[in-house]
Amino acid sequence: MAKKIETDELTGEIVTPNIEPGATAHYKPNLAAQEHNESLGFPGSKIEGWEEKAIGRMGELLSKYRSLKVYMDTCVRCGSCADKCHYFLGTGDPNNMPVARQELMRKVYRRYFTPGGKLLPGLSGAEDMTGKMLDEWFSYFHQCSQCRRCSVYCPFGIDTAEVSMAARDIMNSVGVGQKYCNEVLGKVLDVGNNLGMEKPALANTLEFLEEDVEEESGVAVRYPLDEVGAEVLLIAPSADFFSSPHIEGFTGYGKVFHEAGVSWTVSSYASEFANFGMFVGNFETMRKVAQRIVDAARELKVKRIIVGECGHAWRVGYSFWNTLTGPFDFLDPKHRTPTHICEFTLDLIKRGVIRLDKSANDDLNVTFHDSCNVARGSRMGDKPGGQFDIPRELIRSVCNNFVEMDQDTIREFTYCCGGGGGLLTDELMELRVKGAMPRAQALHEVMERNGVNTMAMICAICKAQFTKVLPSYGIGMDVVASVHQLVSNAIILGGNRGV
Ligand code: SF4
Ligand code: SF4
């Protein structure tokens, strides 16, 4: 394996950059164009009197979300979060310390919402909302992937992700949107998926998959589209329909349904699980994206919704769908919350419905990357271990060789891939590479120690990000795998049937 990672000769650890204030101030996403902003109901471009409007929006958010006000008032600057952000560790810019990121909003909060800041701004660390401040917001609130790692270490549970969501909402409210997120959201609301893929293209992809699986296995596995009366509506991230290693995972979903004898369908109206409304911090946009899924489920008369491998979307589905678009009283009473495909598959395996040949994965030495929004945003509290244990148990069920990365980098302590939170865009590539450094370091260590050659995961953004950035660390992109790709390899088609 080529090693491009600079490591310390004595400790073997990846050399992290020197501290350099402002080193990444120039990292900015592209500004959203007028049509992208307006398609979401935001002003097309920066409005006249934006300063007053931005403060007004901040006031609305502070009174609507008590947590935001608590976060503004509570920080004691203890520094526990300072070295916990992958972007700080990867860039060396202290403005990427979570406490410094929050401080960008807190300065403005003090100036307009606290007596001390109104009367004596210079003495209370308060600052006006100026063009320079907005510029810093646009830069550093788009250098936060909203991963929530810092909140795990904060003694008060201050969640910088929520602060960054609020900042992005405020910026959108004055016409300063981020192109990637707003463009993607426009496509979902218009066509039904992030890629803008129309129904014929989707149908072709699913037909191609059917041919491919039958050619390879001799078994006619169906990948149905828009089938009214199917038991299950499968909602997957749209990356699962076209790129590797996502599509190998999607292939696995179909094989699982086939072996379970469960009828299922994809919807051409709502063919996207991702919901970037969360990244821009705007609940109305998030609700509109989620509503398409509810409408599709009603139209197709399904009994339950099963969702594919997508991190932030699982958080939205599991934690927010019911509030945003519930009640789901038209579904089977036993299945009114969405089921994660990993939970569905593991249950079938435990009940012996699916037969497996684990040796099909014997050339793989597998580790697991916990995706942030699953690990820290949506643990299934009512299930032992929730989404920390389910994917691990599933991998162990289909693979003989599994090993964990360093304990400080897994489960709730996991490091972000560096591309989450709406940052998976080419103009932020330098930031994405640097932000991936802590995870690359942990992966590199377990590759050296245990000969790991595969990192499995259950998030479309993580898969897309790692295949792109790991080569910068001398790690091949083929190390990245979908968990259901491993299931797909091991499943014996034509075995037992029926749940
Ligand atoms: S939420 Fe994640 S990306 Fe944002 S400041 Fe905290 S650790 Fe960094
Ligand atoms: S850990 Fe919490 S209280 Fe301490 S500096 Fe960070 S945000 Fe503030």
In short:
The protein has 499 residues and is mainly α.
How would you describe this structure to a colleague?
The chain has helices at residues 34-39, 50-64, 66-74, 86-91, 98-113, 115-119, 131-140, 149-153, 160-173, 179-191, 199-217, 246-260, 283-300, 311-325, 341-350, 372-375, 386-398, 429-435, 437-450, 460-469, 483-490, and strands at residues 232-235, 264-265, 304-307, 339-340, 366-368, 454-457, 480-482. The longest helix is centred in the middle third of the chain and has 19 residues, at 199-217. It has 2 domains: 34-177, Fumarate Reductase Iron-sulfur Protein, Chain B, domain 2 (Orthogonal Bundle), CATH 1.10.1060; 185-490, no CATH class. The protein has 21 helices and 7 strands. The protein starts with 33 loop residues before the first helix and ends in a 9-residue tail after the last helix. β1 (232-235), α12 (246-260) and β2 form a beta-alpha-beta unit. It is globular and about 75 Å long. The strands form 2 sheets. A 4-stranded parallel β-sheet has the order 2-1-3-4. The model has no long low-confidence stretch (mean pLDDT 94). It has 499 residues and is mainly alpha-helical. The structure holds iron/sulfur cluster (2 copies). One iron/sulfur cluster binds at residues 75-81, 98-99, 154, 156, 158.
